[in-house]
Amino acid sequence: MSGNSMGLLFTVTSFGESHGPAIGCVVDGCPPGLELCAEDIQQDLDRRKPGTSRHVTQRREADEVEILSGVYEGRTTGTPIALLIRNTDQRSRDYGNIADTFRPGHADYSYWHKYGVRDPRGGGRSSARETAVRVAAGAIAKKWLTEKFGIVIRGHLTQLGEIEIPFTGWPHVAANPFFAADDAIVPRLEDYMDSVRKSLDSVGARLRVVAENVPVGWGEPVYDRLDADIAWAMMNINAVKGVEIGAGFASVAQRGSEHGDELTPEGFASNHAGGILGGISTGQTIEVGVAIKPTSSIAQPRRSIDKAGNALTMETHGRHDPCVGIRAVPVAEAMLALTLIDHALRHRAQNMDVAVGTPRIAGPARSI
Amino acid sequence: MSGNSMGLLFTVTSFGESHGPAIGCVVDGCPPGLELCAEDIQQDLDRRKPGTSRHVTQRREADEVEILSGVYEGRTTGTPIALLIRNTDQRSRDYGNIADTFRPGHADYSYWHKYGVRDPRGGGRSSARETAVRVAAGAIAKKWLTEKFGIVIRGHLTQLGEIEIPFTGWPHVAANPFFAADDAIVPRLEDYMDSVRKSLDSVGARLRVVAENVPVGWGEPVYDRLDADIAWAMMNINAVKGVEIGAGFASVAQRGSEHGDELTPEGFASNHAGGILGGISTGQTIEVGVAIKPTSSIAQPRRSIDKAGNALTMETHGRHDPCVGIRAVPVAEAMLALTLIDHALRHRAQNMDVAVGTPRIAGPARSI
Amino acid sequence: MSGNSMGLLFTVTSFGESHGPAIGCVVDGCPPGLELCAEDIQQDLDRRKPGTSRHVTQRREADEVEILSGVYEGRTTGTPIALLIRNTDQRSRDYGNIADTFRPGHADYSYWHKYGVRDPRGGGRSSARETAVRVAAGAIAKKWLTEKFGIVIRGHLTQLGEIEIPFTGWPHVAANPFFAADDAIVPRLEDYMDSVRKSLDSVGARLRVVAENVPVGWGEPVYDRLDADIAWAMMNINAVKGVEIGAGFASVAQRGSEHGDELTPEGFASNHAGGILGGISTGQTIEVGVAIKPTSSIAQPRRSIDKAGNALTMETHGRHDPCVGIRAVPVAEAMLALTLIDHALRHRAQNMDVAVGTPRIAGPARSI
Amino acid sequence: MSGNSMGLLFTVTSFGESHGPAIGCVVDGCPPGLELCAEDIQQDLDRRKPGTSRHVTQRREADEVEILSGVYEGRTTGTPIALLIRNTDQRSRDYGNIADTFRPGHADYSYWHKYGVRDPRGGGRSSARETAVRVAAGAIAKKWLTEKFGIVIRGHLTQLGEIEIPFTGWPHVAANPFFAADDAIVPRLEDYMDSVRKSLDSVGARLRVVAENVPVGWGEPVYDRLDADIAWAMMNINAVKGVEIGAGFASVAQRGSEHGDELTPEGFASNHAGGILGGISTGQTIEVGVAIKPTSSIAQPRRSIDKAGNALTMETHGRHDPCVGIRAVPVAEAMLALTLIDHALRHRAQNMDVAVGTPRIAGPARSI
């Protein structure tokens, strides 16, 4: 209820502040019997890790995960899996000057009014550092989904500020620091980011995340629709301001004769639905688009107030990502994985009695 | 867990099929002492009611609500409020021919695979008829929010197919069948809808819904962010394909120096955040944008398959809205109200100890 | 959260006051495909119905149930099943004199302080009339448990006031108005009840409810233990003051060498555990004992106060059960069924991956 | 859903195995502003700690707690409080011989069938070692309840095997290793325990736990009754087989004229209800009785089977409590505190609108 847990059957309960002793989570509901070791989790953590290129924050965190429970002789036991990541590089002195002021675009003002007290060091609980925990939990979800169903979850940046990034192929994504699915555009992105940094400013981004091979029938009909739970998951990522499924906002100007995906014995003829109809998966690829606002911490002088309501001017220095959208890619993948595994388990609970003869159909993966 | 309830502290549990005996819900968690009668609810139901103009479905439903419990001598008692709406105009013959086929764009295919059985009459549980229930429950939420906090929740259509609708003023909205905030454009919208109907097609829509006077401090920090819960609520409305908060997708191409709302002693200098920072309300107007796909039921021939997987061609006749987005306006208002009242009650539970001296600030309402 | 729902995966949301228009519930999470009609539910309702003998309340309620949704062509569809029972015999005049006073032993005082307002007619929401709803929902649960697993849930009275009732055989239970498993004692029980009524007093009761053929492995390990959820369910029945599992309070004076049930290839050698170890079912019969206090409404003069705190003397007339424990038997069965079906569905969600070779063992059913 | 969390608004999520690296929990929902340091928690942990007398297990655990998050400058911030207790004395060799067998009275058999895999070292997740976590979380709850409402929660042993222990006074409880409220009986208890140990056996126990100064109005009316949630909490403690509130099982043989607590302007005239009526607190002392079975691990030879279903004889050596009921006293206190704080926060969420003029009454504390 206090907003630090997600998932009904596969539940992640997160804890930790940016500059406290540690961050971590308890993953409850992971089915028993899954092979799991710290290295399985570390791989995804390293994709989100700060300090891997000059285009992201220079904070140095090992982000080393320790499994405290729930695994015995290399396999999950069905009991809670506690994950611990110690904070090692907290330069709290960077933040001392903002304890009594509210950084524009940040949660400082709203936190202060909600709690009446806050840990100002690095944004405390509102820091995007918390997303490491989700990536860790998401790695477990991904592994199970892949082993049980062959589900593949992956994402890439589709827009960086004003620059749209074409999709050339998945192998490109891991080969550059922008999660761009097109090698050719990388130099342009680098120049662009350099100029943004020099102007002491930041930019927004747009990303796409997909899940392939999701079985038909996952999701609920009225209030826990699969698309609603995905929207919820994405909007729970720091800095996200918009979410769309399939054709998304483009469907506003579409006609029904264009948007509605026809069915054929060979599969759906298109995927404007983005793999979900009536809140339930269709077996097509699930297509999610996410809009991320520019980083709020910038070194330009900005107007704000202090706790007493006095006007002031502040610049936010420190080691910030000039575009938080970049490192959000593995976070969005994790959130999609966590949403899907929860619905996978719900589906199990509900549907043992069902025997449907109709052959599943699939069809084109991409909505556009 | 089966997806027919929403809200943690103010919980709506919905039931009913389009062509069954009745639809309705149980509202649990409404604070005691609120003055309430059926008429309070009926007003909002009538705004969503079918058959009110030629541009919406011609199904004739009185949508008359009966309060079965939870109200004594004109006031809520704190016990569950059950609401019942009998279905009166179910022409099931209209749907007999689709029992063994899957209508493109509809939930038929995914429902079939999820449940192995479905009530095909009018889409059964997947029918947008269920949204009447939300409007009814939302009316209770709205009334309480208004009486306690002066909160005003309202919405309007911002785009109908290709036509963008300007915002001229709130009083316009109730004066035309399109929930358009501009009288002048109404004739154009009418011609447009007539042409859509004649072409046996349908169109999408975009709408905006806002909540004014929401206190600062509502929402959770990590996973039940207010914006995430709003996105979830909106995406749970039939046919919704995208949601954005504040600047939304426009923030992708913004710079941090532009997007981040500055604070001044007189209030925020802008509202790109849409009234929410770090998942918690700021006291500014909450701004939500919603994209709705074109109605899936159209009378044009479309390709599909039957349960055995055989190809076929089908036309969907019946009494359908040529643009489901229009009547979605009161539904979106209701979903926003239900989300807010839940967070209002959470806030109560959490914050009795807090005494924050800083004067609240507000600032400009609109994000753009 | 407001205490009108039970069950995580098979959720019953109850509504209604004793003297309002109706009581009822929404059952969400019933698996699709179960044959179900009103008559299936009516049978259990009739066992709990008032007015069936001179030893229970003489209120005349048909307790006729209407299924409003979730069933299509005689089978459940997986969508919410709404059940409605209209109140027909509300003599509110019986209760007019108690609107401003607090009946001893009743919830009047605590409700008044919780809600600040209450529906005094017949106890309003706190009336045991609400338990009809649980019996109705429980009938669905029972039917599914029986069809899927052959589970048999049944109960009987083991003590009425000072009189212990021996267990002679299950067929006896349906043959007398006391749910006594021994015909021979019935005349003595009748005389006893007559004398209690004549003395304008009431008595407590003890009952036993069991579930046979429950598979091994249901229940959670730490906080949602099957025995804890059963205790919760039982203690949620009006007037229940104690719950025990298996040997229960007798285990206090037992030695470990006596209490701990040995395992043999043929099954457990005893059942002091009552079918549950470590919160998880063992495959033995689940054994539950319940203590029920005497009816609070008695016609003797008793001291109380009014809302202003003034002393007064009151007698509670009306049509009350002289022993609420009797009609509690079908209610306790229903609560056990609702608890078990929820864990059955949880088990499904969790355990698809498990393949345990060990042959299940069972052993003696009774704990003592 | 997987049974490792308790509480809706004050939620404890527990993790850890007896012989894994650590146990711990995340406490989510603690109001901000509470002064808190590790020492506050350590005090209660030390009361439950093993190895403090010859009558409890000789396992040596420092049970030192580390606060990982949620506290800043000595006060809670409203964000999750993660507590970590490293396991230091795990002699896994003690348990190697039981990996393929099922100890009578233990969760081994049911765990194996539920999960298909288990951590056999010290009972893994089913070990009572987990209860240290609850004591730690409960210490936070206790502190808040005391500071806000002056609530006092305490418990004592009322029966050890066949020996009933009189209540002489609270100060006695801390002065002996049995949590006995009577000094004079201690030598007899010591002799008794010595003889139990010598006979290689174990005994059950009965305990009483109370909460004084609980305000009137906490609890829910139908399904989350305060007494039901307390029963659930107690039955979730390892080895508990029975729970009663107020007069409990004694109420079976009572008359209504005896059981029903009369109200007077000076307070209730008795407390057979145990402080709860209709599921809601009355302002009187909450009275809970708990029955605990004898320790299952005994060194006598007992019949069992192995995973293949073969008969065998086993003795359970190791360092076990000859009566688990003794150290259960602080655990039961913690569970009561956790239940109460959750309802305290629910009450806040629901009842801001209520203004009830009637003066609260209290009356006698003890039910008997």
TrEMBL record, chains A, B, C, D:
Enzyme class: lyase
Protein name, per record: Chorismate synthase
Gene field: aroC
Annotated residues for binding of NADP(+): 48, 54
Organism annotation: Crenobacter intestini
General function of this protein: This reaction introduces a second double bond into the aromatic ring system.
CDD domains in UniProt: Chorismate_synthase
MF annotations from Gene Ontology: chorismate synthase activity; FMN binding
DNA damage as UniProt keyword: no
